[in-house]
Amino acid sequence: MSCHQQAAESLRLAGYRLTPQRxxxxxxxxHLGGHVTAExxxxxxxxxxxxxxxxxxxxxxxxxxxxxxxxAFDVSGGASQYELxxxxxxxxxxxxxxxxxxxxxxxxxxxxxxxxxxxxxxxxLDHLAITGLCAACRASIxx
Length: 143
Description:
The chain has 6 helices and 5 strands. By secondary structure, it is of the alpha+beta class.
């Protein structure tokens, strides 16, 4: 079963109808891949279904995020971005230019183990966006 099919099944199992609008928006997130904004999702959907509006996209994304089907993260100074929830993965997000770089999971497994050992705290680190300065922005600021 593809990630797209699993997401659709998750919606059904949670007791939600798989409406045409929800299916189109889910399909858009799947086909666009990577990190997409609500506006990009809307543009994709409206190519075939011009009657869908931005509020429908946001309502559906909120539902899919709440169900854990879609993950959302904020980019400093920009619109939230969305992607299908998949294997745990993380991002480094530049607060100046908005670039997004992947961060390997092993970096955070050590942190998770430390938090559990030292504080008895089991952290949910399946998807994390860490903001800061990318190398290029840091270099331009430093001179």
